[in-house]
Design brief:
The protein has 416 residues and is an alpha/beta fold. The protein has two domains: 59 residues, no CATH class; 269 residues, 4-Layer Sandwich (Purple Acid Phosphatase, chain A, domain 2). The chain has nine helices and 13 strands. A six-stranded mixed β-sheet has the order 6-5-4-3-12-13, covered by helices on one side. Strands 7-8-9-11-10 form a five-stranded mixed β-sheet, with helices on one face. A two-stranded antiparallel sheet has the order 1-2. A hairpin with a 4-residue loop joins strand 10 and strand 11. Helix 1 packs across helix 4. The radius of gyration is 45 Å and the shape is elongated. The two termini are 86 Å apart.
Length: 416
């Protein structure tokens, strides 16, 4: 601490130590010249003189200095006591925690020993209860296969340069992916046919076969590289070859054709089934009319409900379900609930496309199955929704007793 006492030595302030030393020396009957020598030796803070010391002595209110010194000494002692008390509390706390840890370790050790002792005292299981007898059954109940085919978007095009390297799509990529899908289906069919008979393939074709017309939607020339007629021709010709191949692997093929929103012929039409997807299906049916093992259902409605092995499948494209900035899972579940409440025969499976992202959701009434797309990430999904899904299509088994059993998400860019 510094005591503010005026002096003749350049107005500098004396420390408590200087003041107390001066006081003690003076009380010891030292003369000012003697005090000068002692303070120069012990302090050396300034140029002490007998006159300056005498003036300091006479002008200082010593009762104030002594009182301040005593307070300082008391505060220092109190601080020291507090530090000692704090250290003691910390030491006691650590000691208590150490005792608690040791006690818990002892308890844990007792519990472990008790469990081990109990296990050792358990009767040994009979060897017969551990035996495994493999089933001699070589075949199982027939199963059908369901393929969800949607969102082909034939005629859409975007480059890696346009998407910053995140995705590309064109007619050749579509054809390669369709060929990969065909090969994957046949391999999965061969694998499952080793266990049971597969008499029928159900193709749930849920729309957006074509990418659409520039003046019939929000898609423009930046999204398309083919006119609508060529899109339709490529669509039915590619699907014709695909389905014809499936007839070689499955005794029966059932095709269900639902139109999507990209195929509409205008923004506002009098009939909603005036749609290029439906035209594609009609051409496809004519092109395969000689294949008697194909069953066709191409409705004018935007949905089909079909009973397959005792299970009701509700099929729709999904564009009537509204959402904001992504996949409206809540909106899809709400739509499924509304459909269940509206239909006399309650659907067990609600199957849709449109959102380009495969998903499955269990509901109170059944299951929702959402399909992927052939495009993967496109200009709209990457820029607006910040989504770049892998191009996928869904395939699953249908059992008379168990409904939908196994499920595959077939990645269309994966080649064996």
């Amino acid at each position: 601490m510094i005591i503010d006492a005026n002096s003749a030595d350049n107005g500098s302030k004396w420390t408590v130590e200087e003041m107390i030393l001066l006081y003690n020396l003076k009380k010891a009957d030292k003369s000012f010249p003697e005090i000068v020598e002692i303070m120069r030796t012990s302090q050396g803070r300034r140029d002490y003189t007998a006159n300056s010391l005498q003036k300091k002595w006479s002008q200082t209110e010593w009762n104030v200095v002594l009182s301040e010194f005593e307070k300082q000494q008391f505060d220092a002692l109190e601080t020291k006591d507090k530090d000692i008390e704090r250290d003691k509390i910390i030491e006691d706390t650590l000691s208590t925690q150490d005792r608690l840890v040791k006690r818990e370790l002892a308890r844990t050790d007792i519990i472990i020993k008790g469990i081990k002792s109990s296990i050792y005292r358990l009767p040994k299981p009979k060897s017969s209860s551990l035996a495994y007898s493999p089933s001699t059954k070589k075949t199982y109940t027939d199963e059908h296969i369901g393929l969800v085919l949607s969102d082909l978007h034939i005629g859409a095009a975007h480059t890696l340069e346009e998407t910053g390297g995140l995705g590309e799509f064109n007619l050749e990529i579509f054809k390669r992916r369709l060929d990969n899908l065909k090969n994957s289906i046949l391999k999965i069919r061969d694998r499952h046919s080793l266990m049971y008979n597969i008499p029928e393939l159900h193709i749930f074709c849920l729309g957006d076969i074509v990418a659409g017309m520039e003046d019939a939607g929000a898609w423009s020339a930046s999204y398309l590289d083919m006119d609508i007629y060529d899109q339709m021709v490529e669509g039915w010709s590619c699907l014709r070859d695909f389905i014809a191949t499936m007839t070689k692997a499955f005794p029966k093929v059932s095709f269900y054709g639902i139109y999507g929103n990209h195929g509409r012929v205008a923004k506002k039409t009098q009939k909603i089934y005036a749609n290029w997807d439906k035209i594609t299906y009609d051409f496809l049916k004519v092109a395969l009319k000689e294949y008697e093992t194909i069953n066709w259902e191409i409705p004018k409605a935007w949905f089909i409900q079909k009973d397959i092995l005792g299970h009701n499948f509700y099929l729709t494209h999904g564009d009537g379900i509204r959402g904001q900035m992504g996949i409206p899972h809540y909106g899809v579940q709400r739509a499924e609930m509304q459909v269940v409440g509206m239909m006399e025969d309650k659907p067990d499976y609600f199957i849709l496309g449109h959102f380009h992202s495969p998903a499955e959701m269990q509901t109170n009434s059944g299951r929702i199955i959402m399909n992927g797309s052939f495009m993967g990430g496109d200009l709209y999904s990457i820029r607006q929704l910040r989504r770049c899904d892998v191009p996928e299509q869904k395939m699953f088994g249908i059992h008379k007793k168990h409904g939908v059993t196994w499920t595959y998400n077939i990645q269309l860019d994966a080649e064996d």
